[in-house]
Amino acid sequence: MRSPLIFSAAAAALVSVSSADVQVTTIFSVEVKNSWQHQTYDYSTEQLADPSKLESHLFRRQISSISAIQSLFSYQASVSFGTPKQTFAAIFDTGSFQLWVRSTLCTSSSCRGLPSFNATASSSFITRGQAAPRIAYVDGSSVAGIYGYETVSISSYTITNLLFVQANSTAGISDVDAILGLSLLPTSGFSMFFDQLVSQKLVNSSVFGYYIDETLNSGGFAFGGVDKARFSGNVSWIPLTNYDGRSAPSIYWSANMKSVSMDGIGTINLGNPGYSVVFDTGSSLTILPVELTDSLHSSLGFTKMSASQAGSFSDTLNLYTISCSSISTIPTIRLNFAGAEWVIKGDDMQFSMTTNQGVICVSSIAGGDLTGGTNIGIKGIVGNSLLRSVYSVWDYGGLRFGIATPIRAKGLSSIFSSSDIAESTSKSSDAWFARAVRWEVVVLACALVVGVLFA
Questions:
Q1: H or E segment at 169?
Q2: Residue 84, preceding bond cis, omega within 30 degrees?
Q3: 165 beta partners
Q4: Nearest C-alpha neighbor of 46 from the set 429, 447, 370, 391
């Protein structure tokens, strides 16, 4: 039986506001809900090094059943496909650009009895007649499907003829209906829901904001601006890193982390240019290289979790635990980027987990060496376990990522605005499609180079 929490996900209504700085601002607000009580994500990055496989997810996800986990940092909202609408729970994922949904084409036991999109019941479906690349997972689970075009809606917003994948195989996956990608668009041959909102001027800017509230059970996106009720002070901007350290624009929301500081303890410097990390709303955990996480957690008083406690995670990740009575001793952690300091309070460095040995407190940062991504320089992934500690702002047009001090109280009245980001978006929105075409040329050129080097 599916968790009722999945069906509690809801998209908020259209909100129109005005300000002295921006004459008319349309902000598209979406509430997301914690989706499961007993499952979470971890990663394989086997195809990260191959730009020719950009049509599949930028990050390979697997779902692992770990009944002990209670705080999951995995969030979904409702997305509708077709005419009439067929509604599904989707992860809004800044770590990938594809849109896929489980479909009735899947007849295996992994899909039986689960919500599935029925193309034959939709008058707006258009077939493309082309198989999409298979999405493979390290535990043997996978997603495969067929491309098509469909009318896709979130709340009052509708995009017609949007390219998506009808999943006809979801081996080993039962609790994900759909994933809606929000990464940087790698090629002009594809379009995403958000870039269509921008290009069709359904929102005023190519920026969105994201938060997770204090309950950890819900959060939200503001597409086309930010929710000023959700942060205090100014937004600190972090420039995105280039692809593979060369001149090509990033295909990830990634930046170089220069050092990690622990108040009252010391600083771990990460060299030059630092560790390139990806900011990913589709990830539950934060994953950094083992050498760094071992040193960090040793300094903070954490110990490595045993294989019996970590379960299937022990094969791919190092998890760290600390006595729950010692949470108050965890100092403030500071992740240092060019132009910004990411402040993590001690309480945000851990979450509780119930095992057969009782309640334990686990670090929000796991250790894992993303060896599959070394050719493109990706060293780590910052997931929801740390994204909760900031209000994040994602600027497509300005190619930058912003963080601000969050206000995480539940039930706040939103104050939507794009005035704080109007300068960057007004300069960049007109160049949206020109940039997309330029990115395609550069990324495809990189793909050809890699093909020559590794043929």
A1: strand 157-169
A2: yes
A3: 100, 147
A4: 370
Distance of CA 385 to the CA centre of its chain: 11
What is the CB-side half-sphere exposure of residue 126 using CA atoms within 13 A? 9
Give counts: helices (H), strands (E), the chain. Answer: 7, 30
Structure tokens at 364: 């929000």
Burial 441-451 (b: 16+ CB within 10 A, else e): ebbbebbeebe
Close Cβ partners of 383 (under 8 Å, ≥ 6 residues apart)? 41, 73, 280, 281, 282, 283, 284, 285, 286, 287
DSSP string, 80-138: EETTTTEEEEEEEETT---EEEEBTT--STTTTTS--B-GGG-TT-EEEEEEEEEEE-T
Distances (CA, A) of 131 to 80, 145, 167, 176: 22, 6, 10, 20
Q: SS3 breakdown of the chain: % helix, strand, coil, rounded to 5?
A: 20, 40, 40
CA–CA distance, 165 with 102 (Å, rounded to integer): 9
Contact 97, 187 (CB under 8 A): no
Please choose, from the candidates 205, 388, 213, 373, the residue with its C-alpha nearest in 3D space to the C-alpha of residue 285. 388
Q: What is the mean pLDDT of each run of 10 residues along the chain (455 residues)?
A: 23 25 56 56 29 29 32 82 96 86 90 93 95 62 86 94 92 79 76 91 92 92 95 94 57 91 97 91 89 97 82 74 95 94 97 80 91 62 95 92 96 84 41 36 28 28
CB 267 within 8 A of CB 333: no
Amino acid at 401: F
Q: Residue 349: helix, strand or coil by DSSP?
A: helix
How is residue 361 written in tokens? 């407190």
The candidate with the shortest Cα–Cα distance to 12, out of 231, 206, 218, is 218
Query: Pseudo-torsion of CA 220, 221, 222, 228, nearest 10°?
Result: 50
Q: Which of 418, 413, 357 is nearest to 12 (CA)?
A: 413
Per the CB < 8 A criterion, the answer to whether 77 and 11 are in contact is yes
Of 304, 221, 296, the residue nearest 266 (C-alpha): 296
Identify the sign of the CA torsion 78, 80, 86, 91. Answer: negative
pTM score of the predicted model: 0.80
Note whether 50 and 374 are within 8 A (CB).
Answer: no
